[in-house]
Write a structure and sequence with these properties.
alpha/beta; homodimer; 7-stranded mixed β-sheet; 6-stranded mixed β-sheet
Amino acid sequence: MAIQKGKSTLILDNQPSIVASASVVGKKEGEGPCSKNFDMIIDDGYFGETTWEKAESKLQKTAVNLALKKNNLTPNDIDILFAGDLLNQCIGSVYGMRDFKIPFVGLYGACSTMAESLIMASLFIEGGFAKRTCAVTSSHFCSAERQFRFPLEYGCQRTPTAQWTATASGCAILEKHQENKPFVKAVTIGTVADYGINDVNNMGAAMMPAANDTILTFFKDTGHSPEDFDKIVTGDLSAVGSELLIESLKKEGLDISEQHRDCGLMLYDRNTQNVDAGGSGCGCSASVLCSTLLKELYEKQTKNILFIATGALMSPTSLQQGETIPGIAHLLHISI
Amino acid sequence: MAIQKGKSTLILDNQPSIVASASVVGKKEGEGPCSKNFDMIIDDGYFGETTWEKAESKLQKTAVNLALKKNNLTPNDIDILFAGDLLNQCIGSVYGMRDFKIPFVGLYGACSTMAESLIMASLFIEGGFAKRTCAVTSSHFCSAERQFRFPLEYGCQRTPTAQWTATASGCAILEKHQENKPFVKAVTIGTVADYGINDVNNMGAAMMPAANDTILTFFKDTGHSPEDFDKIVTGDLSAVGSELLIESLKKEGLDISEQHRDCGLMLYDRNTQNVDAGGSGCGCSASVLCSTLLKELYEKQTKNILFIATGALMSPTSLQQGETIPGIAHLLHISI
């Protein structure tokens, strides 16, 4: 049985394995540093559909189908699927998953959704609630920009602290522990953290406090030190938030500067790809995890990583009403 | 350990108890048939706030505080909280729960959220993942109407099939099994069902197929018959959806007409309260469960009920893009 450390850190006894994963990304993401690790790179933002929202649903559907195919599975082999995305009422997931007829748990964790869904998918295996689970999420630059900021046609100038919403989806399939497959060793469920940031063009700073809190909680609850990990990967604080996080944790006596990476900085080459502070969106950490990070584990280039996906939980309405931006971060210790 | 029947029905071995619940509702809901069972009835739709969205957050916060108070608990006594609502990016929950500093799992299941959150809260106790969990959701007539349909000021005429979004919140707190407290005996997680309905003013019909599928799955997986239950309560199919559901299940050889109730029909008096087909919104089934239905169990007026909350998973954007309305329904068998 899982051992509860503190309130929200769970050390998993059965250590469910991630038996397959898949990633599908857009053209720009396909030209970045993770390029060779993606399963599919699409040329056209519409992905053969008539709207960006429908394209985003297709990204998720394709990611699930690709992950299933790797293990010769069909949708009928999955007991429960956990999914969510950034779109109002999570329509990326709902319409993407509709045809599969898999029992469905909808999540909302903004850009933390890959970690949130992976935690749920792990715990359902851990608790004996399911034999095979699936975690999936997505984002799309065009559907997100027009929903959260400005219509693309407006040609709005971006600030240097702005992040680029990834057009991408990632999917992971979990089963009971298996030899030579990455497995989930521990999880920490985050709390909502709000340090009063209200700049929608500086999400990294808004999400940093949540990452800070969750990482501190994990290290306090488990007694681990940063040296126990090959990589401590946040997603997606990008340049501004990452720097703030390292500083903030140092003040708390925790130095992760050696091990720290960020999915928002891994997905794009900031020098050549014009993404300002880096990447963001549910699909950013999802596609980096489900390609590069899991590949490194499969190949035993890394043996222990922390994956901490961060989400900014505001809406355009809440900002118009003068609210600040609360963040959340969920953490998984993935090992092989 | 929980026993998995079929894919998505779980018979709970530890049978977590609902140790406290609370409900907060608006003026109209407070004048309905469940009136005497609510913990708080608010007179003003703004609930002392400046916007309806902030009022909705306060509904959730108040429901949690009232439920905590009943058992002399503080937020610090809760290990994990599951919450969601209808608003874009679930801001009702995020801002409502922000100050509690409780580990937070955001859900999106539209009007099925009370069942979805209660299932998760139960399973976290069942699996030994937490000692005390909380499930909460809300809706607000004014925030929902302007987001999904028309600005209230427009004075749009309602159709007879339309449902009235409840201004309400319900919260339940769960712990390990306790004598003389209602407990969760089994759950069925639903699949997304879409039978091609695209009329946003006929949500009952859109959600009916999901309720139909989940109820059939539960009875098939468990071998129960409707006579095993005092009440089989859907939320919120209201008048149109309820009639369709009874008919549809009869065709499948399952007659629940004796036991069937619907939260959308229990919350209001349709003859006098001008709610057309009945109530809806996450807060509708949440407030009926967390007041009347749990009270009847506590007082042993009922001993076994099925609670099946239904959600319509579309967004205004998906409908504008010509999509139909997918539904989902999650089920709990609650006993005492």
